[in-house]
Fold this sequence. Notes:
Layout: E1 6-8, E2 11-13, E3 17-19, H1 28-36, E4 42-43, E5 60-63, E6 66-69, H2 78-89, E7 95-99, H3 106-117, E8 121-125, H4 141-152, E9 159-163, H5 169-180, E10 186-189, E11 193-197, E12 199-200, E13 205-206, E14 214-218, H6 223-236, E15 243-246, H7 252-261, E16 265-268, H8 270-275, H9 279-294, H10 299-302
Parallel strand pairs: 3-16, 4-7, 7-8, 8-9, 9-10, 10-15, 15-16
Antiparallel strand pairs: 1-2, 5-6, 6-14, 11-14, 12-13
Helix pairs in contact: 2-3, 4-5, 5-6, 6-7, 7-9
This protein binds succinic acid.
Succinic acid is lined by residues 22, 46, 70-73, 125, 127-130, 191-192, 216.
Amino acid sequence: MTDLSTTIAGVRFPSCFMNAAGALCVTRDELVALGKSAAGAIVTKSMTVEPRQGNPEPRYYGFPGGSINSMGLPNLGYKAYAELIPELKRFGKPVVASVAGLCEEDFPTIAAAINAAQPDLIEVNLSCPNIPGKPQIGYDPESSERVIKRVRQIITVPMGLKLPPYFDPAHHEAMGKVIGRYGIDFLNMINSVGNGLVVDPEREAVVIKPKGGFGGLGGRLIKPVALANVRAFYKIFQGRIPIIGTGGVMDGVDAFEHLLCGASAIQVGTVLVEEGLDVFGRLDKELAGILARKGYRSVAECRGMVKEL
Ligand code: SIN
């Protein structure tokens, strides 16, 4: 029997697959449905201080290679999620609260209230690309450090960071240095590849409304970028900080590649939105099949095992 469970910062996940923050996890009904599904955890939408409707529609578009979105953090506001956490914990799987903010000041405010509600883990989102006029904090090591320093003093449950994709080893190293100073319990990478542009040639138009059509890319086309980031940070920390691999996972083989590169768990966004909650059963089955075929008995056994030539 192949063991698909995983452990992150001492917290056991019954399956290594879970939703990415943003995918089917905004409302109470969606979160409860995740609780009842085969997902290995319930991850909340990244929350802000005030409830938000998000950006104008259309703001999500799926195409054969992937997806583009500019949701703009639609969410219920942190107070609503803090109230929901005790109910969500009854499903017997970890609850991961995703904390965002529209400015640096927001992060400690939300972190304090959410930490008091005691989710199993807190993910601090430094990488939303879709708020007009707000750069991604994760691309600025100094701003990232200010946020991390403040929330680190507040958060007592295992705390992780959701990072944007980096495209140069110098950027991996710069963020690695910041992360290494604050006892971060886990990392999650990558958020969508920000500010892509998809054009419909028939309509001679962009496909989403916010930001003139610019939005975060997800799905199959971003997998190599996600794998590169997982691998880079796995090597920087020599496997000591568990990584949730997110980006481009459409099937069990994609997940296996993330594990080989160093991921301990997998989040899915585009494929969950496209296929619905049944995707978790399919992914479990496909990953179990490939692990068994390759002679691995568990997720842990193949973590980081990719060979370099
Ligand atoms: C969004 O709500 O725009 C996406 C959130 C994110 O990318 O962090």
